[in-house]
Design brief:
Elements (H helix, E strand, L loop, with lengths): L9 H12 L2 H13 L3 H29 L3 H9 L3 H36 L9 H12 L2 H20 L2 H28 L4 H9 L8 H14 L6 H6 L8 H29 L10 H11 L4 H35 L3 H20 L6 H4 L8 H38 L9 H29 L2
Helix pairs in contact: 1-8, 1-12, 1-14, 2-10, 2-12, 3-10, 3-12, 3-17, 3-18, 4-5, 5-7, 5-14, 5-15, 5-17, 6-13, 7-8, 7-14, 7-15, 8-12, 8-14, 9-12, 10-17, 10-18, 12-13, 13-14, 14-15, 17-18
Bound molecules: tryptophan (TRP).
Length: 455
């Protein structure tokens, strides 16, 4: 145990957990997914899933991790007695970690590029939409540059993770998240007071239920899990460094609430500005890169706000990438007996290779930008397959495992160890046994039905 490292304090753990959860998922992915999928109704379904599925699954992951002190593969192995199905699920967690790490760092690399652009004054004045579009497209279609920035992000994450748990991850999470939060509030105020912002507020706040579809609900569920870092064992791994003294249910409640709050705020920053700038909501992963420069261009001191904001987003992204990378690394260290440095070097190099097609799928390579047959970019394909679908599958099996294989009473005992209270024991048991797995299954069936069979 002592060689695995541990969190130094309760606040340290909550901040590290929140550092994992809060990242590009909130600031970049949530606004564009909301924009792509009908606005308020997506945000509403997302919120419901965060509390109905996300929160109970977070408790489940932390509990499984703390009890076994292991990475996902080791955890499933030891609690199931090595049954093949659960080996497979553990393997899926590690695989998702690899893939998500590799494309997440692509976007984080874009943000690094935007820090540079802001620093040299590109967005100091209010530019036209066309000019902003042009700047963005020529940036993301420049293969060598995006590949280099991708490498920079991977290198930074690798550096933090090879430093071990306490020294590396925790230090980064402690001070900067509150500053990011304050900046988001300021930017949201700027955004909603722009001329024409009302239309965007309406889009964000008044649900249009005709926009409900299987794919939309599946994506809202995936986004809830993605944003809370669930479904691939990040929280299992983080839980394995957690002391028995901590109250898991309370910590998870804090992490969930912070995370949801940041997503909602990011929506208030981006969507009203989209309307004010007469842009389209449905711009996919490009959205914030086309909207934020306009916001900064339209506010006094925009140069410094822009610089500060993009820098903090890199740090938020870094504390998240670090937690994703930690999963495959913990696997190689615990299960294969590699040294931490070896594991980091291996996973990071492979992730750079795997992420390269995702980096090149925004104009640098025609084929990857528009995959034949499905017509979406390689990036979007991987984002849906691993960011939404595989996390939902992972969360389903984690819920089934803790509720039906290991058992809620053993889990509750673990949560209540050292006299911790678990007031929602009954509610949690019900959610994790029935609600979470049944909803996840139902969403899959509904999506398959509405997408492939009903037409
Ligand atoms: N939750 C992080 C974000 O919103 C990303 C992240 C970290 C993640 N760990 C994860 C996503 C595990 C899925 C699974 O930016």
């Amino acid at each position: 145990m002592s060689t695995r490292g541990a969190w130094s304090s309760r606040a340290g753990f909550i901040l590290a957990g929140a550092g994992s959860a809060i990242g590009l998922g909130n600031i970049w992915r949530f606004p564009y997914m909301t924009g792509d999928n009908g606005g308020a109704v997506f945000a509403l379904v997302f919120l419901i899933f965060c509390f109905l599925i996300g929160y109970p699954v977070m408790i489940a992951e932390l509990t499984l991790g703390r009890h076994t002190q292991k990475n996902p593969v080791g955890m499933f192995n030891s609690l199931s007695g090595g049954r093949p199905l659960w080996k497979l699920v553990g393997g899926l967690c590690v695989l998702s970690g690899f893939i998500i790490f590799s494309w997440y760092s692509v976007i984080a690399g874009w943000v690094v590029g935007y820090v540079y652009k802001t620093a040299v004054g590109t967005f100091e004045t209010q530019l036209s939409n066309e000019a902003i579009d042009r700047i963005f497209s020529s940036f993301v279609s420049n293969g060598p540059v995006v590949m280099l920035l991708h490498a920079v992000m991977i290198f930074m994450a690798a550096f933090v993770v090879s430093g071990g748990v306490k020294g590396g991850i925790e230090k980064f999470s402690k001070w900067l998240m509150p500053v990011l939060f304050a900046l988001l509030i300021l930017l949201a105020i700027r955004s909603v007071t722009l001329d024409g912002a009302m239309e965007g507020l309406r889009f964000y706040l008044y649900p249009d239920f005709s926009k409900v579809s299987g794919v939309m609900v599946l994506k809202a569920m995936g986004q809830a899990l993605f944003s809370l870092s669930l479904g691939m064992g990040t929280m299992i791994t983080y839980g394995s460094y957690l002391s028995k003294k901590e109250n898991i249910a309370t910590s998870a409640a804090w992490i969930t609430s912070f995370d949801v709050l940041v997503s909602i705020l990011a929506g208030f920053v981006i969507l009203p500005a989209v309307a004010a700038m007469h842009q389209s909501y449905a711009q996919g992963p490009d959205l914030i890169f086309k909207v934020l420069p306009s916001i900064f261009g339209s506010m006094p001191g925009g140069y410094f706000f822009g610089l500060g904001f993009f820098t903090l987003v890199i740090i938020a992204a870094l504390t998240s990438t670090v937690s994703i990378l930690e999963v495959p690394v913990a696997y190689f260290v615990d299960e294969r007996g590699w040294s931490r440095k070896q594991a980091v070097a291996f996973v990071a190099s492979l992730a750079w290779l795997i992420g390269t097609p995702a980096a090149l799928s925004h104009g640098a390579t025609e084929f990857l930008t528009r995959l034949p047959a499905i017509g979406i970019s390689f990036f979007d394909f991987i984002s849906t397959a691993f960011g939404d679908i595989s996390l939902s599958i992972g969360a389903f099996f984690i819920a089934v495992f803790i509720a039906w294989i290991w058992g809620v009473s053993k889990a509750s005992n673990e949560i209540e160890s050292e006299g911790n209270s678990f007031v929602i024991r009954g509610i949690w048991s019900f959610l994790i046994k029935f609600v979470a797995p049944i909803i996840i299954l139902a969403v899959f069936l509904y999506t398959i039905w509405t997408t492939f069979l009903a037409s």
